[in-house]
Amino acid sequence: MVCVAKGIEEATLKTLSAVIADELPAANIAVLSGPSHAEEVSRGLPTTCVVGARDKETAEYLQQQFMSEVFRVYTSPDILGIEVGGSLKNVIALAAGVADGLGYGDNTKAALITRGIHEITRLGTAMGGRVETFYGLSGIGDLIVTCASMHSRNRRAGILIGQGRTMRQAMDEVQMVVEGVYSAKAGLALAKKYQVEMPIITQVNQVLFDGKSAADAVGELMLRDRTGELKFETEFEGASS
Fold this sequence. Notes:
This protein is about 55% helix and about 5% strand.
C-alpha cells in the first residue's frame, strides 16, 4: 500500500500511514512524497521524489516501479520524517502566500522557508524522524516548491488571506482542498505535545482561526525575543592575561 496523501489526522495526531495501519494491519505500507506538482509531472518535466518503506526490498521495488527518465525516485527508511515534512510544509506555504498577499518580497519568503524548515525539523526529530530527511526532497525540497509555485493551493490561499480574505473565503475561492488549513491545527497540537517551539505555525493558527490580522502576525514574528541561529560553544567573559 503506497500512500501519496499528505496530512495528519486532527483527532488522533496520527500520520496517514499510521491511520492506514490501523485499518489494514496486514498491509506493507510505504509512502511516496517530494516536490512533484502533478501539472509538471504530467508534462514529463524532470521531477524527483522519495519513497519511504520499512525495509530496503520494498523501497527498491517501488523505486523500480515508479522510476523513469523524467521521474527519479530515491529511497529512505524514514516513513515518519517523510510524512511530517510533507504535512507541515503546507502550513509554511500558507504563511509564504500570506507574505506575498501583503506585498512583501523575496527576503521575507526566504526567511519563512528557512525558519520554517527549522520548525519542521525540530518537531519531526522530536517525534522520531531523522534530521537528514528534513533537508532532503520531502523536507526542504517540497517546502521550496510549495512556497514558490502558483500550482500550490496553499500558497494561493495564503495570498488571498494576505489580501484580506477570511480563511473560509480563501478556501472557497481556491475551490480545492487547502491541506495547510487542516495541518495547521494538528501541527500546533503536536508542538504542544512534544514541547517544541513553532512560532510560524503558531501565528498561522491565530490568523486562520482566531481572527488575527496577517500583518500583526508578521510583526510578532519579527519582534520576538532575540535568539541565535547557532549556539556559541564558549562564552567569552573577558580576555585572560
